[in-house]
Write a structure and sequence with these properties.
Length: 467
């Protein structure tokens, strides 16, 4: 008889002798004549399934023990064996034990293995768990895994999570769809945007990210779902994305005059402004030889300071002091915050100070208090960026951070390695998906600019450089 495929190769189909048939293990099905037929399961099949189940159970226990004792090598070996077994139950064991906890290294290792999993029942189970697992961190990780796959089941799971009740999962889905850049997702993104508008959340961070994703996929930008439907419906069957040189940029706001910090729109409802007030912020920067960039968006030379000509003499312009520019810009931002925004201001040098414990509502009274707080900034001390980031991430329900700094992280007059800081933020933010936007200074040096750019990039944020 012909051999039969299994998840692990091909095996010979056993003869259906009475000695090998177990009456307890039959699957009923209906023939074309309407008769009920018994499909036998052989003793060898039962023995094989039992052995596989025991292997899965054994490796699951080994993985659990290795994770509890923080031993990566034994844990990775258990992961490899479960991947080799390759059954849906093996995948369930990996996910239930290894994902969604406090074991970043093994989570990344499992994720890398799941990305390379061949199509089949085991991969289908990954897609199911990406939607159905009760733990939001697991749904986040598996959604990121599926962002790297092109199968229909993977795309379906990512699209399903676009409507997840947990904001972190929904935001991760948008990240995945932006990475895929597939026209087939446009209708779903429009529908998700329509639901947010119906729930009066059109100005939420999720809605903003959906519009930004649509902009990346199509090269076009519209303010609301109806406009998107009117544009997309007659074109989707033969749409061609416009030349990248003509693609629109940054037109995702639904507000007439949105609050912005150095040109970056404040779209999150829960936000922290994290500001460097170290001694170097006292510096006064001269205007560049070729200013340029003095746009309303505030991304160029004149941000936070009056647009004036460079002085004819060599005297410094006080309005170009870094701290003063930050104070002026932040005050303008605070004044425009809607009253449904929750915010906090954290300053750092060799100390970490906060306007409040946790986030506070942007009421008129609280905004006046915040503005007075900003006016009293004083520049002194070192740049303890690592401690400052830890303080910012301690806020509950946080959705965005705006970090501004003009100096490399430093402690006791010694520069700190930025790699461990990037790593800590990556771990702290792997489930929360907080948008980390950064603002640096062109005069601050190449290494700092690279650090600030990396912080923004790895946390789905934006980097702005002031001159």
């Amino acid at each position: 008889m012909e051999s039969k495929s299994t998840p692990f190769g091909r095996c010979a189909t056993p003869f259906l002798s009475l000695q090998l048939i177990f009456c307890l293990s039959v699957v009923c099905t209906t023939s074309c004549c309407g008769q009920i037929l018994a499909v036998p399961v052989t003793a060898s099949a039962i023995a094989w399934n039992s052995s596989t189940a025991m292997d899965v159970s054994s490796e699951k226990k080994k993985l659990t023990a290795a994770i509890r004792s923080n031993q990566f090598d034994p844990a990775s070996k258990a992961v490899d064996r479960l991947i080799k077994i390759g059954t849906p139950k093996a995948i369930e064991a990996l996910v239930s034990v290894g994902l969604g906890g406090d074991h970043y290294g093994i989570e990344r290792y499992i994720g890398s293995k799941l990305v390379g999993l061949p199509a089949g029942e085991a991969f289908d189970r990954v897609c199911e768990l990406a939607i159905k697992d009760r733990r939001a961190p697991v749904r986040v990780i598996l959604t990121l895994v599926l962002a790297n796959r092109t199968e229909l089941a993977a795309n379906k799971a990512v699209l399903t999570n676009l409507y997840d009740n947990d904001p972190s999962v929904a935001l991760t889905s948008v990240e995945a769809l932006a990475k895929k850049e597939n026209f087939s997702s446009v209708d779903h993104l429009i529908e998700a945007l329509a639901r947010l508008e119906k729930a009066r959340n059109a100005d939420s961070l999720l809605a903003y990210e959906i519009r930004r994703c649509l902009l990346k996929i199509t090269g076009e930008d519209f303010k609301n779902a109806d406009d998107w439907r009117n544009f997309w419906a007659p074109r989707k069957d033969n749409y061609k994305k416009p030349d990248p040189k003509t693609v629109k940029k940054g037109m995702t706001s639904v507000r007439r005059d949105p609050p912005a910090f150095f040109g970056m729109e404040v779209v999150a409802k829960n936000v922290v402004f994290l500001l460097d007030v170290s001694g170097s912020m006292e510096k006064i920067d001269e205007l560049p030889e070729e200013p340029g960039g003095n746009s309303p968006g505030g991304r160029g030379t004149g941000v936070g300071a009056p647009e004036i000509e460079k002085p004819k003499d060599s005297a410094s312009n006080p309005a170009r002091q870094r701290l003063k520019r930050v104070q002026n810009e932040l005050i303008r931002t605070i004044e425009k915050l809607p009253d449904d925004v929750m915010f906090n201001i954290i300053t750092f040098n060799h100390e970490i100070k906060s306007l409040a414990q946790g986030l506070k509502k942007a009421t008129s009274r609280n905004k006046r208090e915040a503005i007075n707080y900003v006016k009293n900034f004083q520049a002194q001390g070192e740049t303890w960026t690592d401690h400052a980031l830890r303080e910012a991430f301690s806020a509950s329900n946080l959705r965005a951070i705006f970090l501004l700094s003009d100096g490399a992280p430093r402690r006791d007059n010694t520069l700190l390695e930025t790699g461990p800081i990037l790593q800590w933020v990556r771990e702290a933010n792997r489930f929360r998906r907080v948008r980390l936007n950064t603002v640096g200074f062109a005069q601050a040096g190449k290494s700092l600019r690279a650090f600030m750019r990396s912080l923004a990039k790895q946390n789905n944020g934006e980097y702005i450089e002031l001159k």
